[in-house]
Amino acid sequence: VGLVTLNRPDQLNAFTVQMLQELMDVFRGMERDPEVRAIIITGAGKAICGGEDFRARAESEVVIAPTPPPASNPYGYGANSNYNPTYANPYNPGPASNTVEPSPSYSPLNPGPPPSASSRTEEAPPNTSPYDSPFGNSGPAAAPVVPQPFASPQPVAASAPQQVNVPRQMRMADQVRQLYNPFIKQIRTIEKPVIAAVNGVAAGTGLGLALACDIRYASDRARFLEVAVRVGLLPGGGNTFFLPRLIGVSKALELAFSGDEVTAPEAERLGLVSKVISGDKLIEQSRALALRLAKGPTRAIGLTKSLVYRGANLNLEQSLDLEAQLTDDATRTEDYKEGLRAFLEKRPPNYQGK
After folding, report:
1. Of 28, 226, 229, 297, whose CA is between 20 and 30 Å from 67?
2. Which residues of the chain have pLDDT under 50?
3. CA distance 197 to 283
4. Closest CA to 179 of 216, 214, 208, 213
5. How far apart are CA 85 and CA 102, in angstroms?
6. How far apart are CA 218 and CA 126, in angstroms?
7. Maximum Cα–Cα distance across the chain
8. Could you give the CA distance from residue 258 to residue 295 in angstroms, rounded to a whole number?
9. Residue 162 confidence (pLDDT)
């Protein structure tokens, strides 16, 4: 029995690029090793896997601009000051001030003839401020402020693509295609039984890891969550494939939309796990099952695994045809011949996985 333990307990065993690469290497080695007849995957600490390490991704992708101090605002207002705009009276051009004096010849209380055109088009003094006041000169130049709400933006060509730099992290699509997808397929296609011993939290792509396994035993402290919606993403790790097939479309969408957790007893009721076990007995009972399978005809077990997973996407006629083909493959194995001999000799078979 090969035992694989994810070992970043302080981060709930959240995936990193290095972890995923190491996991694929480990599974490739176990697939080629004839001494490994069954595999258990579990996690150290309080989780089997908390999904991707989004802290590292957030730190590399999110840039939070510092808030400028209120004193640098040339308009005299900011987050920590009273609203006190400064601009010139549009009907009485002159130096900007905080007090707007209405024109004697035009007042809302004493309407009169509007000011002449020449008074409205009188050239204002040069404005040395980096900001253009909507009504004239806003005063002496002030220190630049970031962001500049009234600065004229530089023209950008409509066809210019927006470049997004993600330092120290693979782009999401590349990471999914190069790491997550191959690993999930690796678990599903390896011709050896894979058991998930879910010791605690299985979230996001960590849930996908557990659901990709052939059999799931869960600790009574285990929790299952599809958390992508909490950070504005869609489910990964194959969860949109696995969940509807295990618990139905409606319940799968409820979990994906809400991000709510499922406790171990509820997971067993829904069919997400085969059995719930006391936490201190989880590895012991998972190992007992793995040993039992490892002593069995693992070539036939591997072909059965392939038939079930491939048949799920076939119609009945195609599935029956595949069944006939893989059954014929099984008759060519040494385990099949040993099974027949043991049956005739009325003794337990000694399967070698060949």
Report:
1. 229
2. 72-111, 114-167
3. 7
4. 208
5. 16
6. 75
7. 120
8. 42
9. 45
Provide the token pair at 101.
Answer: 């004096």
Question: Which H/E stretch holds residue 251?
Answer: helix 249-258
**pLDDT score for 227:** 83
Q: If you write DSSP's letter for every residue of 58-75 in order, what string do you get?
A: HHHH---PPPPPGGG-TT
Q: What is the pTM for the complete model shown?
A: 0.67
Cα(263)–Cα(34) distance, rounded to whole angstroms? 37
DSSP string, 211-223: HHSSEEEEETT-E
Q: What is the CA radius of gyration of the chain?
A: 34
**H-helix or E-strand containing 17?**
helix 17-32
Residue 137 has a pLDDT of 42
Question: What pLDDT is recorded for position 169?
Answer: 57
pLDDT at 56: 60
Residue 104, classed as helix, strand or coil, is coil
Residue 66 corresponds to which tokens in the numbers above?
A: 């510092």
User: Is-contact 48 199, C-beta < 8 A?
Assistant: yes
Per-residue confidence (pLDDT) for residue 17, from 0 to 100: 84
Rounded Cα–Cα distance for residues 350 and 343 (Å): 11
Q: Note the pLDDT of residue 27.
A: 93
| CA-to-CA dists, residue 28 to 24, 210, 214, angstroms | 6, 18, 17
By the 8 A CB rule, do 319 and 352 touch? Answer: no
C-beta of residue 22 within 8 angstroms of C-beta of residue 41:
no
How far apart, in whole angstroms, are the C-alpha atoms of residue 227 and residue 260? 8
